[in-house]
Amino acid sequence: MSSITPEELNLLIEQTYKVEREFSELKASYDHLQNTVEQIVEFLPNAVWILNADGGVFLQNSHAKVLEKLLDMLEPKNDDYEVKFNKRSYLVKSSSYKDKIMLSATDITEQKRKENLATMGQMAAHLSHEIRNPIGSISLLSSTLKKRVIPENIPIVEEIQKSVYRIDRIVKATLMFSKGVELNKSPFMWSELKESIDLDIGYYGYSKDITFIFPQQRFILNADKDLLEMLFSNFIANAIDAIELDENDEGTIEIIYENSGDFHKFYIYDSGIEIENKKELFEAFRSTKVKGNGLGLVLSQEIAQAHGGSVKLIEGNRKGFEISLAI
Asked: Are 172 and 164 in contact (CB under 8 A)?
């Protein structure tokens, strides 16, 4: 057996070091690639799982970890499909490569909610058009009837008129929600708007002794008067309903006005019951009231925003809302 020469030994050692360096470089490259893949998967907005052939998790992002129990409901399919989990909707996609399976779940709850709202809005708009004509006839006939009935029956006719007014408010709100808010600005005095609001209060009707405190200042609003009448009437109607449900026999609704230089600011307070679910206040077709249609506050917010302002719930000792309208 021939012995290895020193030259051959040195060459073998150099080759060993070379292989070791290449292995280290290859491992570093693999680690970098793995970190990059993990960062990309983590960056994705949806939950992603990469599974081994036996179903074990090879890789997942933080969204997937939060939805760990959702994984048990998923299975690889050729077509995309939807699943419900914890009152949320998810669009599931799957793909496979060699011995790995990738599953992704995208939260589409908000998208489906908007689609449902659009469908509900179209249906509501159609129904509102159908209702408007008979409501107009009932309103006209009740006005004629009120002039002809005996005095004892006038309160009955007035109740009919108040009910018609409530339906008309719902119809107007529904049509506006489906079409969107369109402004027709012109200058007018606050006192003119207050007169219209007073008429709405008279038509709305209530059984308790309610004190209304409105701003006494003289100031001009350059806005859409009809839309602002709807905005304030919505808040006052909500306040009346809250007082009607309160255990006290009387209540107070107060509107305070301030001019901040850039905005007309109105603060509306009432002494009625507290708001039950504040998170659903400004969601369409979701009402915190038993007899609400879920559009009043949504439209009020849109009207304020169309006037360059906003509507905010006041968090504090007094229950109320802040309405801002750009000057």
From this structure: no
Residues of the chain with pLDDT under 50: 290
Q: Are residues 185 and 327 in the same domain?
A: yes
Q: Are residues 116 and 167 in the same domain?
A: yes
Q: CA of 276: how far to CAs of 42, 44, 194, 272, 293, in Å?
A: 38, 36, 29, 12, 16
pLDDT tens per residue, range 154-179: 888 877 877 777 777 767 766 666 66
- On whether the CB atoms of residues 326 and 260 are closer than 8 A, the answer is no
| CB atoms closer than 10 angstroms to residue 174 | 24
Contact 272, 243 (CB under 8 A): yes
Are residues 298 and 190 part of one domain?
yes
Same domain, 84 and 196: no
The domain containing residue 57 runs over which residues? 45-107
Number of other residues whose CB lies within 10 A of the CB of residue 55: 8
Element (H, E) at 14: helix 6-43
Question: Where does 149-221 have alpha helices with state H?
Answer: 154-179, 190-204
